[in-house]
Structures are given as C-alpha cells and as structure tokens.
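Structure tokens please, single chain.
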Amino acid sequence: MISVKPERQWLHVKRRVTVGGEEREIKLAAGATASELIDALGLHPDGVLVLAEGEPLQPVALTSALPDGGIRVVLVASGG
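Here you go.
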C-alpha cells in the first residue's frame, strides 16, 4: 500500500507565538512545522524548545505540524 500525503495548502495564517516571554505575531503556511516556525523566527534549532500551551506544556517535535492553540518558544542556553 502506498501512502501519499496531501499537498500543503499555502494559505498563510497568522500565529501568536511567545518567544522568550515576548509575544510575537508571525505568518506561516497552513500546516507549518515547528522547524518552519523556528526558521521564520530566525532562530537556531539547537537553542530552542517549541512547546504547545496547556497543562502541562507539551513539547512539539521539529518535524511535527504546529498544533492549534498557543505556542511557546523557549530559548535555552548551554555551556560547559
């Protein structure tokens, strides 16, 4: 059996995203992934966590489509 994904709808949607405590509004294609969100924000994927708002906050994989509702992007620091 062959599985084919439907073509992405290139309607642009505005999403409200909280980045490092600051709320931003960003345009993304319908069905955009967490990775596309990070690219649109100009951030490096190694320095952020994408979380779906709710109780508790749920991580969103970079390859996953963004869920409906609020999204938080948490900036992380690492060092050694």
